[in-house]
């Protein structure tokens, strides 16, 4: 009888003891972590996958929180600073280990392809490294402005190991000599099609090919001053705008060609980011955002929706979003992309759709060129 009376109480006591022990364990594990603990190594919920703790020591050195020399800073609301790094870096530990394996204070490995692979997988921004990147052995100074705008740079301004072509002559000729696809296959030829982009006069009404001067006439003179070109190839758009005293930053990836080197050699600013990254500009600041070809149906729909809203975010009220030759299948434009773009809230200044026939009419592909305005009020 006594055992039957006391058994429930004993079980209740054991239950309380287990709860207390777990709470104490959680308390000490959460408070014993110093400010130098990396947030990447902490798991907050059971639904969040645990991060592999076997990560490169240099990666952990970079990502670990660092105490501020003067203590708590009200701007950080903390006494610790955490360097930003792409969450997806830890999803590819083998590649990350290769990228972060180097001699501190020495030369970086010649690993541009590996770095870009990580970046395109979402390891963006890439972790910083404490090494010196490879540079051309006999570097040639760039041409001075304005000559640099339409001159091919010296071959000795580039480290060529990551690319199929080993000089600019090869890149210029590959539109005629090389089979298969390469991004912007003919754009290194500054005396070819690049020479006439966005400047052709006498375009017909309803043409997909808007000219820069046509677009600028939609704003008061001098009010388009700064902007962004997303996936801008070799930055001819930025060069054309520079000739009109407008500053354009060009995003580009080095897809089998030294695009960023080439852009910088022309005297305009390259920005080495993918379309997945949040645009590194504050809200309501840019006068114009332009994008040609890189925006198309290869981008997942949800990512596209985030991207267009990010463009809307960085444009100032009254700013322009120039969608230049966006391409997809006709049904996709009607059912997916047109509703997606229109849902963001732009005013439509121009909206032109035309057939894309370079791969055959049977594919039913179309281009969209549109000039969109962020509303001045209630944006």
Automatic annotation (TrEMBL):
One of its GO terms (biological process) is methylation. It is found in: Endomembrane system; Membrane. Keywords: Glycoprotein, Methyltransferase, Signal-anchor, Transferase, Transmembrane. SUPFAM superfamilies: S-adenosyl-L-methionine-dependent methyltransferases (SSF53335). It comes from the Eukaryota. One of its GO terms (molecular function) is methyltransferase activity. Its main location: membrane. One of its GO terms (cellular component) is endomembrane system. InterPro entries: Prob_Methyltransferase, Put_SAM_MeTrfase, SAM-dependent_MTases_sf. Signal peptide: none annotated. Pfam families: Methyltransf_29 (PF03141). It is a single-pass membrane protein; Single-pass type II membrane protein. Belongs to the methyltransferase superfamily. This is S-adenosyl-L-methionine-dependent methyltransferase. It comes from Rubroshorea leprosula.
């Amino acid at each position: 009888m006594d055992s039957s009376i006391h058994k429930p109480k004993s079980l209740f006591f054991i239950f309380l003891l287990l709860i207390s022990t777990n709470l104490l364990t959680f308390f000490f594990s959460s408070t014993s972590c110093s400010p130098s603990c990396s947030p990447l190594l902490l798991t907050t919920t059971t639904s969040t996958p645990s991060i592999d703790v076997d990560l490169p020591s240099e990666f952990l050195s970079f990502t670990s929180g660092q105490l501020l020399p003067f203590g708590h800073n009200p701007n950080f609301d903390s006494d610790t600073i955490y360097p930003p790094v792409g969450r997806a870096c830890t999803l590819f530990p083998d590649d990350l280990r290769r990228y972060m394996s180097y001699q501190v204070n020495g030369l970086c490995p010649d690993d541009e392809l590996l770095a870009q692979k990580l970046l395109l997988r979402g390891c963006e921004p890439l972790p910083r490294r404490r090494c010196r990147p490879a540079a051309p052995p006999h570097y040639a100074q760039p041409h001075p402005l304005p000559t640099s705008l339409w001159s091919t740079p010296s071959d000795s301004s580039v480290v060529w190991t990551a690319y199929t072509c080993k000089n600019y002559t090869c890149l210029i000729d590959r539109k005629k000599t090389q089979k298969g696809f390469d991004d912007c296959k003919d754009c290194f030829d500054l005396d070819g099609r690049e020479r006439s982009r966005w400047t052709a006069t006498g375009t017909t009404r309803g043409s997909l090919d808007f000219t820069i001067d046509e677009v600028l006439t939609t704003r008061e003179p001098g009010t388009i001053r700064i902007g962004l070109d997303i996936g801008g190839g070799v930055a001819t758009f930025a060069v054309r705008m520079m000739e009109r005293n407008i500053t354009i930053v060009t995003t580009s990836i080095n897809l089998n060609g030294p695009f960023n080197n080439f852009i910088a050699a022309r005297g305009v600013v390259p920005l080495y980011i993918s379309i997945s990254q949040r645009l590194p500009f504050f809200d309501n600041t840019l006068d114009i955002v332009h994008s040609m070809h890189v925006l198309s149906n290869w981008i997942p729909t949800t990512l596209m929706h985030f991207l267009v809203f990010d463009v809307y975010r960085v444009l100032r009220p009254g700013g322009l979003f120039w969608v230049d030759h966006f391409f997809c299948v006709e049904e996709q434009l009607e059912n997916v992309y047109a509703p997606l773009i229109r849902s963001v809230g732009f005013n439509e200044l121009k909206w032109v759709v035309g057939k894309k026939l370079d791969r055959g009419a049977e594919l039913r592909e179309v281009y969209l060129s549109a000039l969109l305005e962020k509303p001045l009020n209630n944006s």
